[in-house]
Write a structure and sequence with these properties.
about 375 residues, alpha/beta, six-stranded parallel beta sheet, 17 helices, 6-PGluconate_DH-like_C_sf, NAD, EC 1.1.1.17, 6PGD_dom2
Length: about 375
């Protein structure tokens, strides 16, 4: 079996690549970083390290890599022959890969090939739907009919800590053993098939997406944004501070209450979920930089995303949202000179004021109580900022 995976970063090699390999696929990576392409092709293998197994090395074989810059013809040919197509390029970058993928899918359609499962394994709500929209709107411009004829576009929920380190001058993935990959089974080409081993297959993906994004990612983001304000370099350092730990757990508990109401999760199960993830975040061997976790704040402040989404729903249900509001406020103070989104947010606040910025990025209106609590927290956090 053959897989084409766009993106050979930490998630690409350390998460999706590993699962595809263990499911019996030969993998073709599509990767813009020429050094990674050359390293993979030198041996047709790569190594990853499992953090909580004392950095046990695992070698992934039967892999190759192509550059979309210089080897698009080879990528198109690989898509024509693929049994599965996946991505992990960041949701914001899906439009950048759309033309190449569209050319490959059109060539596959012209060759009379069968439908293929296509999954965007990104840390965002319904990322495969985002990919479909990108395929419709790109220069190649696939039609809905073409996409239906050639692909099963299944959304997924992804969760794994995937970092990296430099070994012998090479960037290698370092992963947490625990992971969750939930696949929208009714969108697969064959809903009864389970193409990726170790994944869960669900009829209702919404509840899993929201549990992951609104609980795991909200707590992670709160740790990063507040951690930076308190002068912490890593999430682990931040969560060693009892004040930040309380805030991070608080965001997760507020989101959990929403999910109990909305989907019928059991409160005890979500408390276990919180405890398990806090244990993951605080694992001593991890060094998860706040700059990495907090990056792309515009996307993370979006109306349906990890902080604003549960906060607005909590407000609608009449539930507490003080911890979520504080994390949202902290996101507006996030500074990363290597992150275009962080720079844009800071420039917008300087030019227009925090009041306009809150509504501009979150769509939270100024006449709501949630807006007032966020604004109050922002002004208070200005005095904390290191």
């Amino acid at each position: 079996m053959k897989a084409v995976h766009f993106g050979a970063g930490n998630i690409g090699r350390g998460f999706i690549g590993e699962l595809l390999h263990d499911s019996g696929f030969e993998i073709t990576f599509v990767e813009v970083g020429q050094e990674i392409v050359d390293r993979i092709n030198a041996t047709h293998t790569y190594d990853l390290y499992i953090i909580n197994r004392n950095y046990e090395k695992k070698t992934i074989d039967k892999v190759k890599a192509y550059s979309p810059i210089t080897q698009e013809k080879e990528i198109i040919a690989a898509i024509v022959e693929a049994d599965i197509i996946t991505t992990s390029v960041w949701a914001d970058n899906l439009p950048k890969i759309a033309n190449t993928m569209a050319r490959g899918l059109k060539a596959r359609l012209a060759a009379g090939k069968s439908r293929v499962n296509i999954m965007a394994c990104e840390n965002a709500f319904f990322a495969t739907n985002i990919l479909k929209k990108a395929l419709l709107n790109c220069t190649e411009g696939m039609t809905e009919d073409e996409m239906t004829k050639i692909g099963g576009f299944a959304n997924v929920s992804v969760d794994r800590i995937a970092l990296h380190s430099i070994k012998d001058g090479v960037s290698v993935p370092e992963i947490d053993e625990a992971f969750e990959l939930v696949i929208e089974k009714n969108k697969l080409v064959d809903p009864s098939a389970e193409p990726i081993k170790g994944a869960d297959y669900a009829d209702n993906l919404d509840m899993y997406l929201e549990r992951k994004l609104y609980m795991v990612n909200s707590g992670h983001a709160a740790s990063a944004y507040l951690g930076q304000l308190y002068g912490c370099a890593t999430v682990q350092e931040a969560l060693a501070n009892p004040v930040i730990l309380e805030e991070a757990v608080g965001t997760m508990k507020e989101a959990a209450k929403v999910l109990v109401k909305k989907f019928g999760f059991k409160e005890a199960d979500l408390q276990y979920f919180i405890d398990k993830n806090i244990k993951r975040f605080t694992f001593p061997a991890l060094k998860d930089e706040v700059l990495r976790v907090g990056r792309a704040p515009i996307r993370k402040l979006a109306e349906q995303d990890r902080l604003v989404g549960p906060a607005k729903q909590a407000e609608a249900y009449g539930y507490e949202y003080k911890h979520l509001a504080k994390a949202i406020a902290a996101a507006f103070l996030f500074v990363n000179l290597d992150d275009d989104q962080a720079i844009e947010v800071q420039d917008f606040v300087k030019q227009n004021g925090i009041e306009k910025a809150i509504t501009h990025y979150t769509n939270i209106q100024a006449d709501t109580e949630l807006f007032k609590v966020i604004l109050s927290n922002y002004n208070n956090l200005l005095h904390v900022k290191k």
